[in-house]
C-alpha cells in the first residue's frame, strides 16, 4: 500500500515545457548572447558613484538573467542549458576576435598609433574580464535555471514569483562572487574594502533589478506561454 504523501507524489502532473520550434527561443537566445558580450566590454571599465563601486556593464547584465529565467520557465533546464553554453561560446569567440583585431598590424602614422592605443585600452582587458564573466555566467545561470525548474516541478504553474525570486537570488550571488573575485584586479580594485563594496553592490543591484522586474518578467512569460502551441499540447 502507498501512503498519502506517496499518492500525492505519484498523482502530481509533470511540469509543462514548450519545444523550441517557435521563433521566440531564437530571439531570446540572440538577446542573451548580445547582452553577455556587451556586458563583458562594459565591465572592463570601473565605475564610481560616490561611495559605490561597480563596472560599466552593471546596467546590462541583469537582463541576461531575466532572459535565462524566461527560457528556463518556458522551455526547461536542458534547453536553457543549451542557451547558456551557446552564449558562453559566442562570448569566448568575441574575445578571440578582439585579440586578433588588436594583434593585426595597423598604420604607423600618429592617427594609426592613436587608434591602436585606443583599441588596446578599450578591448585589451576584455579577455580577463571574459574569463571572469564566462565562469561566473556558466555557474550562476546553470544554478539559477536548475533551481527554477526544480521549484516548478514541485509547484507546477503556481507561485511563479517565488521561482523567479528564489532562483535569481542564489544564481546572482554565485555569479557575482565568482566574477568579482577574478575581475576586480583587472578594473583596478586592489584593496579588500573596495572588493567587498564591489561584490555587495553588484549582488544587491542585480538582484534588486530582477526583483523589481518580476511583475514584468511574469507578464512576458505569460504572454509567450499563450503563444507557444507546444506548451499546452
Number of strands: 2
The SSE string, one letter per element, is HHEEHHHHHHH
> Nearest-angstrom radius of gyration?
20 Å
Q: End-to-end distance, in Å?
A: 33 Å
Major sheet strand order = 1-2
Q: What does the oligomeric state look like here?
A: single chain
Taking the sheet with the most strands, its summary is: 2 strands, antiparallel
- The computed structural class is mainly alpha
- As residue ranges, the low-confidence spans are none
SS field, number of helical segments: 9
Report helical residue fraction: over 70%
Mean pLDDT: 86
Query: What shape does the CA trace take?
Result: globular
Strand content: under 5%
Organism: Arthrobacter gyeryongensis
Family: Belongs to the vitamin uptake transporter (VUT/ECF) (TC 2.A.88) family. Q precursor transporter subfamily.
Membrane topology: Multi-pass membrane protein
Keywords: Cell membrane, Membrane, Transmembrane, Transmembrane helix, Transport
What does this molecule look like?
Belongs to the vitamin uptake transporter (VUT/ECF) (TC 2.A.88) family. Q precursor transporter subfamily. InterPro entries: YhhQ. With 233 residues, the protein is mostly helical. 74% of the residues lie in helices and 3% in strands. The protein contains nine helices and two strands, in the order ααββααααααα. It has a two-stranded antiparallel ribbon with strand order 1-2. Helix 3 packs parallel to helix 6 and helix 7 (160-183) runs antiparallel to helix 8 (192-212). The chain is globular. The mean pLDDT is 86.
Amino acid at each position: 500500500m502507498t501512503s498519502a504523501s506517496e499518492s500525492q507524489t505519484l498523482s502530481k502532473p509533470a511540469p509543462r515545457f514548450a519545444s523550441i520550434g517557435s521563433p521566440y527561443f531564437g530571439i531570446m537566445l540572440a538577446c542573451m548572447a548580445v547582452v553577455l558580450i556587451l556586458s563583458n566590454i562594459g565591465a572592463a571599465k570601473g565605475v564610481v558613484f560616490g561611495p559605490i563601486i561597480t563596472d560599466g556593464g552593471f546596467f546590462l547584465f541583469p537582463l541576461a538573467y531575466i532572459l535565462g529565467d524566461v527560457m528556463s520557465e518556458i522551455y526547461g533546464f536542458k534547453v536553457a542549458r543549451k542557451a547558456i553554453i551557446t552564449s558562453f561560446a559566442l562570448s569566448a569567440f568575441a574575445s578571440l576576435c578582439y585579440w586578433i583585431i588588436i594583434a593585426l598590424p595597423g598604420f604607423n602614422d600618429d592617427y594609426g598609433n592613436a587608434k591602436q592605443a585606443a583599441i588596446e585600452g578599450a578591448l585589451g582587458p576584455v579577455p580577463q574580464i571574459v574569463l571572469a564573466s564566462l565562469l561566473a555566467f556558466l555557474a550562476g545561470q546553470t544554478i539559477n535555471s536548475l533551481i527554477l525548474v526544480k521549484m516548478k516541478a514541485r509547484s507546477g504553474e503556481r507561485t511563479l514569483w517565488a521561482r523567479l525570486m528564489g532562483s535569481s537570488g542564489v544564481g546572482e550571488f554565485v555569479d557575482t562572487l565568482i566574477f568579482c573575485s577574478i575581475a576586480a584586479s583587472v578594473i583596478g580594485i586592489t584593496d579588500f574594502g573596495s572588493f567587498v563594496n564591489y561584490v555587495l553592490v553588484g549582488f544587491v543591484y542585480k538582484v534588486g533589478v530582477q526583483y523589481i522586474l518580476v511583475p514584468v518578467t511574469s507578464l512576458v512569460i505569460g504572454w509567450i506561454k499563450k503563444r507557444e502551441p507546444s506548451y499546452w499540447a
